[in-house]
Amino acid sequence: MYLFRLLSFSFFILLGFEGISQTSTPKIDSLKLVLKQANSQRDKAKTYADICWEYLNIDLNISKKYNDSSKIYYESINHKKGVSNCTYRYGVIYRKRGEYDKALVNFNDALKYATATKDTFTVADCKYQKGVVYASKGDFKKSLQ
């Protein structure tokens, strides 16, 4: 009985670690198919952005590469909101990497655009992310501003 429990426990531990090293999911696989079928620059930019979000909790380097591609497509069609959203995603990527100064630069840039266009949801989101960054840096007074 003890051996059975030990083997069962080991099996579940191994399954858990296998899931951590996973570099794709069914949703990512589906989005990659959508990307192959995308006809417009905007559709490609949006799909690259969606894939970027999906990789945020799997692999930040891959996430950044998809965000880079999204930004290139949005810039090619002069889609300012799309470029600003890419800037916001860079902030999230840098925050998760612990590169707090880079994260703040990106959140501030995204915040400027959101404020200028009266996008209150993104304004609130950028301020929240900045608060998280300042709290992570240990500057709790700034995190509450």
Q: Can you lay out the helices and strands and say which pair or pack?
A:
Blueprint: H1 2-20, H2 26-37, H3 41-55, H4 60-76, H5 80-97, H6 100-116, H7 120-137, H8 140-143
Helix pairs in contact: 2-3, 3-4, 4-5, 5-6, 6-7
Describe this structure in words.
With 145 residues, the protein is mainly α. It is built from eight helices and no strands. It has helices at residues 2-20, 26-37, 41-55, 60-76, 80-97, 100-116, 120-137, 140-143. The longest helix is centred in the first third of the chain and has 19 residues, at 2-20. It starts with a helix and ends with a helix.
> Major sheet, described briefly?
none
Derived from helix and strand composition plus strand pairing, the structural class reads mainly alpha
The strand count comes to 0
| Dominant shape | globular
- Poorly predicted parts: 2-21
Radius of gyration: 19 Å
How many angstroms separate the termini? 57 Å
Number of helical stretches of at least 4 residues: 8
As a percent range, the share of strand residues is under 5%
Mean pLDDT: 88
* Helical content (DSSP H or I, runs of 4+): over 70%
SSE order, one letter for each helix or strand = HHHHHHHH
In short:
With 145 residues, this protein is mainly alpha-helical.
Defining key terms:
145 residues; 83% helix; globular
